[in-house]
Amino acid sequence: MKQNVWEFVRKENGSYTVFNNGKLLSDAIPKERWEDEFCVRFGFCGHEYEEIVRQLRQSGKCTLKL
Asked: What is the pTM of this model?
């Protein structure tokens, strides 16, 4: 089974980019729209959403392998 890899990356201007399996899905997401984009649009809610936010705040990037 092929692994499903999600990457969330903070850009220099403070916005965020989302990749799925290397494909750009969304670019320039402002911090204020994290919940709408990550939870509503991409389906990462609850614990997954909290982990993404934690890693973005800590290092500016997050990789989830599902």
From this structure: 0.87
Nearest-5° Cα angle at 49, 21 to 20: 10
The pLDDT profile of the chain, 66 residues, written as one tens digit per residue, is 788 999 999 999 989 999 999 999 999 898 888 888 888 999 999 999 999 999 999 999 999 998
Residue 50 DSSP SS3: helix
CA distance 42 to 1: 21
Nearest by Cα to 61 from 2, 23, 22, 10:
10
CA distance 50 to 47: 5
Q: Is 32 within 8 Å of 42 (Cβ atoms)?
A: no
